[in-house]
Amino acid sequence: MDASDHFKLMQEALKYGEVALSSDEVPVAAILVDNSTKKILYRAHNMTNITLNGTAHAEFRIYDHLKCSYPKDHLEMWHNCTLYVTVEPCIMCASMLDQIGVSMIVFGCPNERFGGNGSVFDIRYKSNIKLVPGVGHREAISLLRRFYIRENERSPQNINKKKRTLKLDEFPQFKYSQFITLPEFIDIWGKDAEQIYLENDFLEFEESGKLILPRKVDTDKKRLKK
Question: Per its UniProt record, what Pfam families does this chain match (predicted)?
Fold first, then answer.
C-alpha cells in the first residue's frame, strides 16, 4: 500500500463513521483493504449499542464477516490486507489483530483509555504489524466529540450535557513516539516529513492524498541581524 493511499482510504472509514454516528453508535469505523488490488473487502462500524454486545467492535465485525464469507481462507486473507480504523484498536481488538497477523494498521486518533497499539499497551507479540498512526486524527476526534456531547438515554446516571460546548477547532498534539519510532515514520512518509514527528504536528494531505510537507525555513533569515 502506497503512502498516498492512506489518506483516501481513511476518508472512506471516516465516512462510515458518519453512518455509525447517525445510528447513535460510537462512531468508530474500519475498512479492510486488499494490499494487491487496493479493493475494499468489507467495512464496518461499532454496533455495541444496537446489539447490546460489548464485543461488537468494527474490527471484530470485519473478522466475523470474513470468517462467514471465506471459511477456509479468511485467516490467510488478513496477511495481505491493511486495516484502516478511525480510532486506535482497543486492547481486545489489538490482541485479535495480532493473533491473525494483519499486515498493517492505519488509524486516526489514539484510544487513550483502552488503546492496544501504544496508548495503553502495545500488543504485537506474535506478528510484525506495521503501524501508521495519525491519519485523519482531527476528523476522528471530531466524530467522537459529536457523539459524546449527546444525551445518553441509557446511561444509569442522567448527565446533563446541554451546557457543554462542542469544540471542533482545538485538538491535542499527536505523540507519534508512543506508536512508532522516527525511522519507522520516515520510512512511511519520507525524510522531509521528519519535522512532523519531532514536533508532534498533524498529518495534512492534499486532495490527491499526497502528504503536505512542512515548509523549509531559510536558515539565513533566522539569523540575528547584527
Answer: dCMP_cyt_deam_1
**40-45 vs 81-87, strand pairing mode:** unpaired
Kindly report the pTM of this predicted structure: 0.88
Residue 83 has φ and ψ, to the nearest 5°, of -100, 125
User: What topology does CATH give the domain 3-222?
Assistant: Cytidine Deaminase; domain 2 (3.40.140)
Residue 59: active-site member: yes
Pairing of strands 81-87, 29-34: antiparallel
Backbone angles phi, psi at 32, to 5 degrees: -110, 125
Catalytic residue among 25, 59, 88, 139: 59
Q: Cβ(29)–Cβ(14) under 8 Å?
A: yes
Helix, strand, coil percentages in the chain from 3-state DSSP, rounded to 5: 40, 15, 45
CB 185 within 8 A of CB 176: yes
- pLDDT for 109 beyond 80: yes
Among 34, 132, 39, CA closest to 76:
34
Q: Summarize pLDDT for 66-90 with one digit per residue, the tens.
A: 999 999 999 999 999 999 999 999 9
Which pLDDT tens digit goes with each residue over 125-183?
777 899 999 999 999 999 999 998 875 555 555 555 555 666 666 889 999 999 999 99
3-state DSSP assignment of residue 205? strand
CB atoms inside a 10 Å sphere around CB 47 = 18
The SS3 call for residue 84 is strand
- Spell out the residues 6+ positions from residue 150 whose beta carbon is closer than 8 angstroms to its own: 24, 161
